[in-house]
Amino acid sequence: MAIPDWPLSDRPREKLLMKGAAALSDTELLAIFLRTGITGKSAVDLARELLLHFGSLTNIFSASQASFCQIPGLGVAKYSQLQAVLEMARRALGEELKKSDAMNSPQLARDFLCLSLANKEHEVFVGVFLDTQNRTIAIEELFKGTLTQTSVYPREIIKRALYHNAAAMIFAHNHPSGTTTPSHADKVLTQSLKQALAMIDIKVLDHFIIGSGTAMSFSEHNLI
Hints:
This protein is an alpha+beta fold. The protein has 9 helices and 5 strands. The protein has a 5-stranded mixed β-sheet with strand order 2-1-3-4-5, sandwiched between helices. The longest helix has 24 residues.
């Protein structure tokens, strides 16, 4: 049965308007994005197949153009639209971070970092530079590594922190493996950065490890 023949309360778009986006399943949200299906399949059917193929929304977001476009009914136009939506979401969260106290809005920082780093194929190390009121001054990708590790140089971080006149910092790096368990090296690095930055009166407020759609906070686990 085609979606227009469904009861109004079951149609994804109408359901969103009546109950809000949070009331929709991943399949329904994806169907609204897709807008149309293909011969013999509604947008909901196509969305369900897409989720089954990739396993999760996170995996869809991180899919390459080639793997995304190989699904019947999808193509370069849909892939471009998806990337535009993701980039708009990243920019909107980044704008909110600049207006908010990072310590009073930990979920905002977590969401932004997850959206920015979860899809990376290699490890990257990011610094969030904060002012005296913990508002974001700048967010920079400081180092890029391999599938399993990144070389981080405290002296370069100090130079960037002084350049931005930062009063505090939040760090984040991703684990392409998907796990968010900190390694011994992660713990040692965090303490080294905390001590180095303390010498120039800059606080390290948190360090996030980003996995597959999740984030682990050093601060929440009393590791900082």
